[in-house]
Amino acid sequence: MNNVTNNPREKLACIFGRRSVRAYTNAQVDDDTLRLLLEAAMAAPSAVAKDPWRFVVVRRPSTLTEIASALPNGRFLAKAAAGIAVVGDIDAAHDRQLSYLLQDCSAAIENLLIAANILGLGACWLGVHPREDRIKRLREILSLPENIVPVAMISVGYPAERKEPRTRYTDRYVHHERW
Amino acid sequence: MNNVTNNPREKLACIFGRRSVRAYTNAQVDDDTLRLLLEAAMAAPSAVAKDPWRFVVVRRPSTLTEIASALPNGRFLAKAAAGIAVVGDIDAAHDRQLSYLLQDCSAAIENLLIAANILGLGACWLGVHPREDRIKRLREILSLPENIVPVAMISVGYPAERKEPRTRYTDRYVHHERW
Q1: Which of A120, B78, B102, B179 is the most buried (most CB within 10 A)?
Q2: Is there a domain that residue B38 lies in?
Q3: SS3 letters for A52-68?
Q4: Residue A156 domain boundaries
Q5: pLDDT band at residue A1, thresholds of 50, 70 and 90?
Q6: Do A106 and B107 touch (CB under 8 A)?
Q7: 3-state DSSP: chain A helix, strand, coil percent, rounded to 5?
């Protein structure tokens, strides 16, 4: 993570090094660090700057366990230091469009994940929307009002696994001038 | 952009410094740099790693002008060194769900925007989805097949305006343990 380099690819280490980390140590994540993650999330652009994103920070192990049980492949959330539910307020989204809400919340999530990587944390994006059963359970567990749409759950902790930087760049996904 | 700092907030400069840049110099952006932006985009996570994102890189001024005319508030795209249409293949998206397509493409876009900032470029996210008129025009101009959903247009160039780093962090958007 040393940006004092003239190699453009090395400058992007914070992006290529962001991997889905699902194993965490027992170390807690302090309030200042969680706050920085949220500052990074809310530095994302949003449609017409409506910032429809909202966040529920969960640290109570019993709640994390409950949410984990609602997310297939999300069992590891129970062992994370924190979970951040990223949700959107449909009444705040530009033109009340779900599309903008999803785009804006996803940009915020990606900022949060890159920030976590830069700060030496591990994190993983756990999908919630558009699965009706997961949306319903999140609403119940977190007491979300009707206008609040759960998008994803982000697990956060200090990494107990190490993954190599990478890109999944695929040449045939790139077109020039037209399709 | 010096990450050799012990200040956690300064380490996140690449995120807070990403601003919507709409004014560009006449300088061209070389192929290697555009390629790096796309490598960064495709380093984002996607639902079940389906990577439904696709990209159309546009450099021809006449095409940029045509696309700009289809995007309200997007006039400046005509003066950009390049435009990158970020589109999604609904047949490739997890469970063919538009929600995943939008989330995955948005994460890729945010990676691209942060990479542009790190590399000294300016970029701006121009909304396309869910506006039917914009979707239709993009489809026509770029000859997109039916299964390809235009999400956004990203303008890219060397910045002719400077904006200060910032976050739009808002304390009341953060809840703890439950809503």
Answers
A1: B102
A2: yes
A3: CEEEEEECCHHHHHHHH
A4: 24-160
A5: very low
A6: yes
A7: 40, 20, 35
Peptide bond into B130 cis (omega under 30): yes
Residues of A with CB below 8 A from B110's CB? 44, 106-107, 110-111
Question: Cβ distance A61 to A78 under 8 Å?
Answer: yes
Does the predicted interface ipTM exceed a cut of 0.85? yes
Residue A173 maps to a domain:
no
Chain A residues touching residue B11 (CB < 8 angstroms): 1, 118-119
3-state helix, strand and coil shares in percent for chain B, rounded to the nearest 5: 40, 20, 40
* Angle, helix B31-41 to helix B98-118, in steps of 10 degrees: 140
pLDDT tens figures, A51-72: 999 999 999 999 999 999 999 9
| Contact call for residues B114 and B165 (beta carbons, < 8 A) | no
Q: Does A31 fall in a domain?
A: yes
Closest CA to A57 of A26, A71, A36, A73: A36
CB A57 within 8 A of CB A34: yes
B75: closest CA of chain A, how far (Å): 16
pTM of the model: 0.97
pLDDT per position as a tens digit, A114-141: 999 999 999 999 999 999 999 999 999 9
CB atoms within 10 A of CB A10: 14
Work out how many domains chain B is built from and give that number. 1
Q: Considering just the CA atoms, what is the radius of gyration of chain B in Å?
A: 17
- A129 within a domain of the structure (yes/no): yes
Nearest to B142 among A39, A56, A179 (CB): A179
CATH assignment at residue A114: 3.40.109.10
